[in-house]
Amino acid sequence: MPKSTANITEMMKKLRAITEWFESQEEIDVEKGIEKVKEGAELIKASKERLKELENEFEDVKKKLGDND
Length: 69
Known about the structure:
Blueprint: H1 8-24, H2 30-65
Helix pairs in contact: 1-2
C-alpha cells in the first residue's frame, strides 16, 4: 500500500474485518489464519507509518501558523 494513498480509515476497516473473521470461525484453518495474521501485521505497520506521516504534516502546519508550543 503506497504511503501517499494510505487511508487510516480503510486500514482500520480491514483490520476489523480480520478480527471479525477470527471471531466468526468455529474451527480456524491454521493456514488461512496465518495469512490473516500476516495481512493484519502489514496493515498495522502501514497504519503506523501513515500516522507518523500525518503527525509530521500536523507539525508542519503548526510551524507555518507560528505555534511552537
